[in-house]
Amino acid sequence: MTKTAAAAREPEAEASPTPTKAKPSSFNMVWYLVPVLLAIAAGLYSLPLETTDDAIVFSKSPRQLAVNMSAPLPEKYRSDIVRIQTRKLLTPDPACVPPMAPTDRVHVTSYLGRPETLRAQKSVLFLLNGENDGVVLPWDVADGCLHALTASAAFALGVDADYAANGLRLHNSDGQPIDTASELDRDRIVYILTDFQLWVWPGVEVGYERTVDGVKLKTLSLAPLVFGVEDFFTSDETEYAIELGLEHLKRSPVDSKEAPDGYHADRTSFTAFLDDSHYTRDFRARTAALARLPSPVYCERMQLLRYQTGQFFRQHEDYFSSKDFLQQSATAVADYEAWATWAAATIDALPESVPVPFQQGHPLYPVVADTGRWQHALLQLFLDEAAATGYFATEHVSDVAWRDWIQENVQNKAVDILKQLLESKPYMLEGIIASWEKHIGLPALHYKAPKHPPSGVSHYFRWIRWAKERVEQVGEDAPVVVRTYGRDYPTYRMQFQTKMIQYVLEDYTPDDIDAALGAPNMAAWLEENKDATDALLDILRRAPAMFDLVVASWTKRAGDAFVYTKPVQFQHFEPNRFVTLFLYLNDVPEGGETVFPYSKERLVTDIERDGMAECSEGLAVPAKRLKAAFFYDQTGQNILDPLSLHGGCPPARGTKFGANLFTWNADADEGSNAWGFGG
User: Fold this and answer.
1) Which phi-psi region, left, alpha or beta, contains residue 272 (left: φ > 0; alpha: ψ -120 to 50)?
2) Which residues cross the membrane (predicted)?
């Protein structure tokens, strides 16, 4: 750590996990499962198994699978696996007057399973996606006006009005969409999703159980959100997974700057991604259905894991963090400087009412150029407030190391701490400013930060999301070139970036491109770099107007049914993992738990595992055959959740076999490719 007047060092980052390759997914829709059901009706399939691993004992009876492994496998983009369940957006009605929403929060258990009580009260309980506390609004089925009603509840629950403008949706407690008054009348407990948000199962409370399409989910932890799963897969399916992957097991890779060769001492287990087949596609479909995701392709192919005695995977997140799509690390620093400049000017205009410690010449008077005393005083205020409110004990427990780093560098009087802190943890700026505002106690010094326009990269990723859904909506009326198997079908792949640059170069003159992008030689740069990795994302970061050229070129080939309306504001989205389903394929005599160090819940206590101290902390899910752990990598607001940190504890005796079914917030193959992992 730093010493007096030295430049501060960041805490050491932990290695993040990730396979070098990731593959597609599956979703349990009627149009996808028809062939599966026909396969079951046609007969059961038996497959022999030979293995030398003495940890597994397989039955000798014919194996029963729900799919015909000998049937021809259609190419991905010509199969139903890429079909998308489109959103059901609520339709605004100008004639409707939004009702006043109360501010009192109500826990979902107050009405869970009792829609008749809400119906008798002529009211509805609204909650945000994945949340357990909501607001009750008056409503009767004859009132209609679902959009106005939902908007009122959304704003009462803190939804950004700019994000709500991009679309509001309702889902019932079973994760199914609602868009009619009769459906709302039937359920009466509903969850609000905005824009393209993906469904997150609410935990309700620890111990709560529900059945989803015959699969049992039991809430094991609320933060992180972890469920225990039963009845998702069969004994024969476990054996077949091991048979398919056993000979292909290799040392497990990680995605980390600390592992230039792809391997790290924190992960000593072995893994293998199973080949694309009817078997793996069926699991994609079932996993996506369980998670209520829009498409089978949101799930990767199954990944087989083997942990032999003493092997482990230390704490990690399943989501990716090795690539910075936005590259906006300087934005928070600029925001801090803008706030400090404004605060100083406001203080100067109110000299008599400002507390002495905040006046000019005193430590808490904002001075942007002061990288020492002012920053130390400001951060000490933040630390004191964080200690009083439990800031690092609950929501931000994953950043306790950063709290310690701030404390040590303040004590050592290190210079320019804020710059390094905000470049790595920009979200803390809001808390830092709030602590300063609380202590100065003047309404005139409450700062409302201006919103930045969305990045060209954010626009691009959201547009691909929209265009994929639009292809599904237009169906057979869409030109062949933009259908799922067409040459111009929108994807997150790097090849699609190259194609879009080429179309822009074909459709516009160099002078037009330079003029549109506001700088000379931009067309020349595009021509020279069009095949480079992430060339389009690079130009979108520097010249957001490139997005308009890309959309115009693609729409020229897609037709008028694909005209896109660019939103003013929206939540940034980029492809990443969303929720993980981990299958336990065998009983482990001792050890092999999945541990969530940040959870305050306990299923197993007094665990000691050599080489992995975190196994004694937090929630430990035991490795029990035919059971599974289902846990979210992102929150209900679809933001990466550091609390999802988890690890695979080493078996103390025997071997552990498991299977990962990683789901994404987008096509998993394409998302993996966007991160540079193949796919």
Assistant:
1) beta
2) 29-47
Within 13 A of 395's CA, how many CA atoms are on the CB side?
9
| Number of neighbours of residue 399 by Cβ within 10 angstroms | 19
If asked whether residues 155 and 232 sit together in one domain, one would say no
Query: Cα(514)–Cα(502) distance, rounded to whole angstroms?
Result: 15
* pLDDT in the model for residue 393: 86
Which H/E stretch holds residue 272?
A: strand 270-273
What DSSP element (H or E) covers 270? strand 270-273
Domain limits at 149? 106-197
Element (H or E) spanning 107, and its range?
Answer: strand 106-107
Q: Pick 362 or 617 by higher pLDDT.
A: 362
Q: Are residues 217 and 302 in the same domain?
A: yes
| Number of structural domains the chain divides into | 4
Reading phi first (left if > 0) and then psi (alpha if -120 to 50, else beta), residue 626 is in left
Q: How are beta strands 656-664 and 619-621 bridged, if at all?
A: unpaired
Segment holding 298, helix H or strand E = none
pLDDT for 523: 98
Alpha-carbon gap, residue 328 to 374, rounded angstroms: 25
Quick one: 436 and 496 in the same domain?
Answer: no
Task: Kindly indicate the confidence band of residue 58, based on its pLDDT and cuts at 50, 70 and 90.
Answer: low
pLDDT band at 265 (very low <50, low <70, confident <90, very high): confident
Q: Are residues 469 and 540 in the same domain?
A: yes
Distances (CA, A) of 517 to 75, 514, 524, 529: 39, 5, 12, 16
Residue 214 three-state SS: coil
Residues 382 and 479 in one domain: no
Rounded Cα distance, 135 and 92, in Å? 21
552 and 515 co-located in one domain: yes
Q: Please tell me the predicted confidence (pLDDT) of residue 168.
A: 99
CA dist list (Å): 340 to 333, 449, 513: 11, 11, 38
536 located within any domain:
yes
How far apart, in whole angstroms, are the C-alpha atoms of residue 346 and residue 233?
63
**18 has a pLDDT exceeding 80:** no
pLDDT tens per residue across span 430-483 = 999 999 999 999 999 999 999 999 999 999 999 999 999 999 999 999 999 999
d(CA 61, CA 212): 30
Q: How far is residue 5's CA from residue 372's CA, in Å, rounded to a whole number?
A: 8
Last residue of a domain, one of 562, 588, 618: 562
What's the 3-state SS for 126-158? EEECCCCEEEEEECCHHHCCHHHHHHHHHHHCC
Nearest to 60 by CA among 69, 73, 50: 50
Over residues 6-17, the pLDDT tens digits come to: 444 444 443 333
And the tokens for 590?
Answer: 């001792």
Give domain status of residue 240, yes or no.
yes
Query: Higher model confidence: residue 615 or residue 121?
Result: 121
* Residue 609: inside a domain: no
Q: Name every residue whose Cβ is closer than 8 Å to that of residue 390 and which is 6 or more positions away in sequence.
A: none
What whole-number percentage of the chain has pLDDT above 70? 88
Same domain? For 160 and 185 the reply is yes
Which CATH number is 155's domain given? Answer: 3.10.20.230
Name residue, tokens 């679809």: 638
- Single-letter amino acid, residue 174: D
Look at residue 123 and tell me if it is in a domain: yes
Rounded to an integer, what distance in angstroms lies between the CA atom of residue 307 and that of residue 312?
7
> What's the chain's average pLDDT?
90
Q: What is the pTM of this model?
A: 0.89
Half-sphere exposure of 56 (CA within 13 A, CB side): 27
* Residues in contact with 120: Cβ distance below 8 Å, sequence separation at least 6, in sequence order: none
> Structure tokens of 214?
């015959």
Residue 261 is predicted with a pLDDT of: 60
